[in-house]
Amino acid sequence: MGQPTHGTQSIYNPQFMNIIRLYMVLFSALILPAACKSDKSPQTPPTTEKIYLSEIAGRADSLLHYLHKNRNFNGNVLINHNGLKILEKSYGYADFRNQAPLKSQSSFRLSSVSKQFTAMAIMMLKEAGKLSYNDTVDKHLRGFPYPHITIRHLLTHTSGLPNYGEYFAQVVLRSKYKFTYPTNRDILLWLINEQPKPYFKCGESWLYTNTGYVLLALIIEKVSRQSYPNYLQERIFNRLDMRNSEVFDYQHKLPYRVYGFRNNKKLYDDHLFNRIYGDGGIYASAADLYKWDQALRTNRLVKRTTLKEAFSPTKYYNNMFSKNYGFGWHIDKDGQTVYHSGSSGGFRSIILRNLHQNNCVILLSNNQDGRYENIARVIYGWLD
């Protein structure tokens, strides 16, 4: 019943990297031809480019097949190079109990990858003139007891608010009553009634916290006068034709909804925080995330100037320090790659995007075990 996380710890994992290194040796025949290729300029003949992309796709497919065969990967992958899907494939089962196979339409829990959709909704409302990033939270959420915390602080993890997960897990463990699922409203009431001490004064440091994005979802509901699930469905998923995406709801089951597991055998799908959204809670297919990636490149939802801020490092402590995190996105030091990962309830997910080139790697898994961020990083490196 632990707190859902997004993979803020180091994405380097020795065990997985050893597996990948072993793969490199076993499949060196695939690697060496591409390594010898030096001309990837616009003058590269189309046939040569196709061969090059085919080598990348084959290499990635071989890696994922090898890892799946050795019980180290179960899920879907989509690799985009210059706007072209060079690999879109499923490896394994949507439900280990009946060995139902994964499909291209399979919808996985995104966990903290959901945060970028929450941030987008806030940006859309800001463009519509319905809120400002500098609005204090208490302007929109009555009773919120921290008067100086703003929407921008929530977006950028500079609020200092503690994570709700540990508190609510302990409440359930101590409870003599029937197991219940906390909601976003419960998180707000906890802050109002308990007033937990922030870890630091807002704007003076950086600390990843799911609590901020739970509050952002409530602000979206208050400002838009729609439920968070309905707002995202109407304003984002439907507009982008993301047919296999929705905010999780026990009453509405996606036709290709995937179930989460541990060790490829133990069902780990019913999570304490299943009724909380904003920080997580979205299910989507890899194909839908590709549509999302392409929409971000063509400014279909917000203006380029608005989106630029989402991919800019956060400054704090009177602009003396910065953190490579924007609005729902981590940013690599080179400023070219943005990404986010997620982990909760038997699922792991990651999306890596190149802002300057139309390259993207999407990896979704319904096996909690493993460090799939490492796999995605290796594949992403082959696209350069």
From TrEMBL:
Pfam families: Beta-lactamase (PF00144)
A GO CC annotation given for this chain: membrane
Keywords carried by this UniProt record: Membrane
Keyword Membrane assigned: yes
InterPro entries, alphabetized: AmpC-like (IPR050491), Beta-lactam-related (IPR001466), Beta-lactam/transpept-like (IPR012338)
SUPFAM superfamilies: beta-lactamase/transpeptidase-like
Protein name: Beta-lactamase
Naturally occurring in which organism (per UniProt): Microscilla marina ATCC 23134
Origin organism lineage: Bacteria, Pseudomonadati, Bacteroidota, Cytophagia, Cytophagales
